[in-house]
Design brief:
By secondary structure, this protein is an alpha+beta fold. The chain is 38% helix and 12% strand. The longest helix has 26 residues.
Length: 205
């Protein structure tokens, strides 16, 4: 389930470029000022995110709707939806880099549908500081992105699989049962092996 095609040094570079390009292409004076003030803060937040994710501790990040009272949820939403998503914006190149991370173009969440959009692992509506943090941006299919919406988790067991940090390809846990009816179908279910950690078993189940 995990894929690590982007090395961390490239992620860091992309993150820095996101900050610079966001400032250069914004035409809103107040937003430019806010972005300049919080550039260092956002880079620090990105490093903290990476550290916590590596240790399975993203759930300890509190929900928030401003970045140190400098930028609001609305500011960051505008930055993302107006400067990174539209195809006529220069920063769309970074959005496309995220989409291209998925091996064979398949959604890393379901491993079935084709990638169509970018999902915020920590929803941008509740974790404003990570709205354009590359580690938090996951290529996804429309179904998974819609189904996930702004759901959150409060402990490690509740945490969904993070494609950049979790590896669930090292064991067979997804199985299928043949339903012998017309038309023939399959019922998929999780059956984690006994020789993995209890935490991993609980997350799979």
């Amino acid at each position: 389930m995990a894929f690590f095609l982007y090395e961390k040094r490239i992620f860091s570079k992309v993150c820095a470029e996101l900050c610079i390009c966001a400032i250069c292409t914004s035409s809103h004076a107040a937003l430019i000022y806010s972005l300049k003030l919080m550039r260092g803060i956002r880079l620090k937040k990105t490093e903290e995110y990476d550290e916590l994710a590596q240790h399975g501790q993203l759930h300890i990040i509190p929900e928030h709707d401003t970045i140190d009272n400098i930028a609001t949820k609305e500011d960051m939403e505008a930055l993302y939806t107006q400067r990174f998503v539209p195809k006529n914006q220069p920063n769309r190149a970074f959005y496309d880099k995220i989409l291209a991370l998925a091996p064979y173009g398949k959604c890393p969440y379901c491993q079935q549908n084709l990638v169509k959009t970018v999902d915020h692992f920590l929803p941008k509506s509740k974790y404003v500081a990570y709205t354009v943090t590359p580690y938090n941006l996951i290529p996804a299919c429309s179904d998974c992105n819609t189904g996930k919406l702004d759901s959150t988790f409060h402990n490690r067991v509740e945490e969904p699989f993070h494609p950049y940090y979790d590896n669930f390809d090292d064991c067979v846990w997804l199985k299928a049962k043949l339903i012998e009816m017309e038309p023939v179908s399959f019922q998929f279910y999780a059956d984690p092996p006994i020789d993995i950690s209890e935490e991993k078993r609980q997350r799979i189940s």
